[in-house]
Write a structure and sequence with these properties.
22 helices; alpha+beta
């Protein structure tokens, strides 16, 4: 049995640290087992300090009903005892605050790892309810132990390979009624409409009447940050489908979902005309891909615990609304059943322009747009030199990430001959803007060389007066000279430049950060593993240097061979007298070492990748085995197996 959680505002739950004496524990004796189950701490700088009123720390902001929703769950006397004790714990909270400062961490929220719920192992994550809609900086609501058994709380868990996402069901959450203390937990939080389909934020980039190449250089240089300010930004996409028919969501259903999340969890709506096309809350965005894929673009966060918690929170919100609609979401890299003609068309002008443009530039271009899902991470650099080193290391290792995360072996209900069909589709779409861009490994590479590359990639569209203008195939160089045919006499802004950069798709993409683009979307554990993999390698100097030394003798031909072959053969791809699996073993070790040197207990997120390397079996190969054996060659089972 795992001791349960009651809602509240507390921030005081933490694991023991051998090196630092911890003050006495606020929790009851019968809660110690749950404390022992914690394997990591989620931390952040964005929270109020630990000196909140002691009663808040154990959930005094919420009242338990005398009876449960169905009259079957009485209010436990244990909760009264905990609250009574809490009223005398101001000094203890002060000790916790001092301990937190010595440890250098703000304890904010937590996830259970390797707990047992209904006999299944997984992560225990909690649902943000509408009455507790958090501020823009909040990732998960805060809870403290209350002495109830988890199984008494109506825990809902999706079993299967995806697994791991456990949310409190709404009916059980409503056992408590929120009582607001001051303004810290706003109720019925309002939302507003953001009438802007522009994918970039004008307020973020200072614009000028016209820009020069020096401005473009300054744009990339503005991304340089000291190591103390490096952040982690994770993005992932997923397919929505009807639980009954398994068909893709239609736009009407997508709009209902977005409106529901906005109303229930306090997100602002992004509109194009009268149509909702996304959501925004603080630095997080929920957006749509051309095939209706739902994407979370996460906030830049300090730790892997934070980014994994952010993903969990998002998935719980989506499930809370989608579940009432008969909608599920699939954790896979390529649409396994439906064809391109089954893809819903969205009322978004830029997608119409892009569809027209890319359909003539590769036989798999529309598949890329409509039938793929990925997980990506955005990471910072400290200087141009640091950018070059990280760009080279990550670009060379993208095929390793592709192999480790391969999760798209089905097309049109049958095996497609690939482990990562998603990755393969990118090999047949407008080679001018995709691929391994070999010039990154030239001695002359830097910001200016990437600018020259981007200037020569044909444009797709321009955003003016809340409308997208088709300029597909035209030159950004001409635009800078005021000679763009679609807008004669007009000059680009830095927003135009950043929008143009979003239409370039190499395996690693440079903006004011570096974007890792080589992995298939997958289950929750894999969504958390992708940023862990790259943070461990690129944010640690020793690990980064190890990678650079390893790849120093790789030729352009070898890198391109890996790019082409790995989607088919994964870790078993022959390479330099061995297999890519041998490279992956070294890389995973370096990533783990890098995370451990961060001293934040983050290496747990690499466990799933260590298993892939140890067994040599990728997620795609597991799916193929199930397809050939227990599924009886019926791909429909993947919608249950990989449903979030």
């Amino acid at each position: 049995m795992v001791t349960s959680i009651g809602p509240g505002k507390g921030k005081g739950l933490m694991t023991s640290l051998a090196s630092i004496e911890k003050p006495r524990v606020l929790l009851r004796e019968d809660s110690k087992y749950a404390l022992e189950q914690l394997s990591f701490i989620i931390t952040t700088d964005n929270y109020e300090d630990l000196s909140n009123h002691a009663t808040e720390a154990v959930g005094e902001t919420c009242d338990a009903n005398d009876e449960g929703v169905d009259g079957s769950l009485p209010k436990p006397p244990a909760l009264d005892r905990v609250r009574a004790k809490a009223r005398s714990t101001e000094d203890e909270l002060a000790e916790l605050k001092a301990w937190k400062r010595r440890r250098g961490l703000l304890i904010s929220r937590f996830i259970f790892s390797n707990t047992k719920v209904n006999g299944s192992s997984g992560l225990l994550v909690f649902l943000q309810e509408q009455a507790m809609a958090p501020s823009s900086s909040t990732i998960l609501p805060h809870f403290m132990l209350s002495g109830w058994a988890t199984n008494d709380l109506g825990v809902s868990k999706k079993k299967g390979t995806c697994g791991g996402v456990i949310c409190l069901q709404r009916n059980s959450f409503e056992l408590w009624k929120l009582r607001v203390h001051s303004a810290r937990v706003p109720t019925n939080r309002g939302h507003r409409l953001i009438v802007a389909a522009n994918p970039t934020e004008a307020a973020v980039i200072p614009n000028k009447p016209f820009i020069t190449k020096e401005d473009l250089l300054a744009y990339f240089a503005s991304g340089c940050k000291p190591k103390t300010e490096w952040r982690i930004g994770t993005e992932h996409e997923k397919f929505g489908f009807e639980l009954g028919s398994l068909r893709p969501m239609r736009y009407g259903q997508i709009a209902e979902l977005l409106n529901g999340i906005a109303e229930r969890f306090g997100w602002n709506k992004i509109m194009e005309g009268d149509n909702v096309i996304g959501l925004k809350q603080g630095k997080q965005k929920v957006t749509l891909e051309p095939g209706g894929q739902l994407e979370l673009s996460g906030a830049p966060l300090e730790t892997l615990h934070q980014t994994c918690a952010e993903i969990n929170s998002h998935l719980c919100q989506v499930k809370a609304v989608a579940g009432t609609m008969g909608i599920g979401f699939l954790a896979i890299g390529f649409q396994p059943k439906w064809e391109d003609k089954d893809t819903p068309l969205l009322p978004m002008a830029r997608f119409g322009i892009a569809r027209k443009f890319f359909s003539k530039r590769g036989s798999l271009a529309l598949d890329v747009m409509h039938r793929t899902c990925t997980v990506q991470v955005n990471l910072d650099y400290s200087s141009e030199v640091d950018m070059v080193r990280k760009f080279r290391a990550s670009l060379a290792l993208q095929p390793v990430a592709t192999a480790l995360f391969a999760n798209s072996p089905f097309t049109k209900e049958k095996p497609n001959g690939f482990l990562s069909m998603r990755s393969h589709t990118w090999t047949d779409i407008d080679e001018r803007r995709t691929g391994m861009i070999p010039f990154v490994f030239n001695d002359s590479f830097g910001f200016e060389r990437y600018i020259d590359y981007a200037l020569d990639v044909p444009m797709v569209c321009v955003y003016r007066q809340k409308k997208y203008i088709d300029c597909a195939g035209m030159s950004f160089r001409d635009f800078m000279a005021g000679k763009l045919l679609s807008l004669p006499g007009e000059f680009p802004t830095l927003n135009d430049w950043e929008n143009h950069l979003t239409t370039i798709y190499p395996e690693v993409r440079l903006k004011r950060f570096l974007e890792m683009r080589g992995a298939d979307a997958g289950p929750l554990t894999m969504l958390c593993a992708l940023p862990a993999f790259w943070v461990g390698l690129l944010y640690d100097e020793v690990s980064l240097q190890n990678v650079l030394e390893m790849i120093s003798d790789w030729t352009s031909e070898e890198r391109q061979m890996l790019r082409v072959e790995v989607p088919k053969t994964g870790l078993n791809t022959p390479f330099q007298g061995g297999l890519l699996k041998d490279v992956a073993e070294s890389v995973i070790k370096w990533a783990k070492d890098g995370l451990e040197r961060r001293s934040l207990e983050e290496s747990v997120y690499l466990n799933v990748l260590a298993e892939v390397v140890a067994t040599g079996v990728t997620p795609a190969e597991k799916l193929l085995q199930m397809y050939n054996e227990k599924w009886g060659h019926n791909v429909d089972h993947v919608f249950e197996e990989l449903r979030y």
